[in-house]
């Protein structure tokens, strides 16, 4: 990770996703800009976008040339501008909703058959009533690849489904972030930190965990 590993008592790890978790649209935009781009370049650009296009409506009506010029330092600016506008248009027409999951081929596990038993355009109900894998509430949005899906699941999905406070009252409930095994190094670092806060050492390659020793917990807290 490019971010120094913070103490376990820190209020946050330091990812931009944590700061915009309350607004799923901006989280998706942020990770699209961060994809294959250094955070030192992408995050200032993202903050400028929020000021100029504060809602999906403004983004949907953006002048594509002006938008492309704003994100030019990130590279692939013309293509990214088109995707951002299409994302905003789709979000307005069909925002993510609880109980409406859209096909996500080859996700969460590429080549593992995820989504193969879901018809094109089919909308699935929530996981509790339709257990088919390979579908999530933002699967229909343009530009949402594995990094966006992982980020959204970790930081936003339980909030959309009204489950973000359930962990405090139901010990058997497994939060969505605990189900994610991302490939992105920053998300892996974040989850290692967050699992340690729960008292576990988490393997970012397998998703398996084991109880952390006192020594590891002390190292994590005091560096």
Automatic annotation (TrEMBL):
UniProt domain HhH-GPD: residue ranges: 29-106
Region annotation Disordered: where it falls in the sequence: 97-122
SUPFAM superfamilies: DNA-glycosylase (SSF48150)
Cellular component, GO, one term: nucleus
BP GO annotations: base-excision repair, AP site formation
The UniProt record lists the keyword Metal-binding: no
Main location: nucleus
Protein name per UniProt: DNA glycosylase
């Amino acid at each position: 990770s490019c971010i120094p590993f913070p103490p376990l008592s820190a209020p946050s790890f330091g990812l931009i996703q944590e700061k915009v978790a309350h607004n799923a649209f901006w989280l998706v935009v942020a990770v699209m800009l961060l994809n294959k781009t250094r955070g030192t370049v992408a995050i200032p650009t993202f903050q400028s976008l929020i000021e100029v296009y504060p809602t999906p409506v403004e983004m949907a009506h953006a002048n594509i040339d002006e938008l492309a010029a704003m994100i030019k330092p990130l590279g692939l600016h013309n293509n990214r501008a088109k995707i951002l506008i299409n994302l905003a248009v789709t979000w307005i027409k069909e925002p993510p909703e609880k109980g409406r999951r859209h096909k996500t081929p080859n996700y969460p596990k590429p080549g593992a058959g995820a989504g193969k038993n879901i018809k094109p355009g089919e909308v699935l109900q929530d996981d509790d009533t339709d257990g088919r894998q390979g579908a999530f509430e933002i699967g229909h949005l343009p530009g949402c690849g594995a990094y966006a899906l992982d980020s959204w699941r970790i930081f936003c999905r339980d909030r959309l489904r009204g489950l973000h406070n359930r962990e405090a009252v139901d010990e058997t409930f497994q939060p969505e972030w605990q189900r994610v095994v991302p490939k992105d190094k920053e998300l892996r670092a974040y989850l290692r930190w967050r699992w340690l806060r729960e008292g576990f050492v988490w393997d970012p390659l397998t998703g398996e965990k084991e109880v952390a020793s006192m020594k590891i917990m002390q190292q994590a807290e005091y560096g």
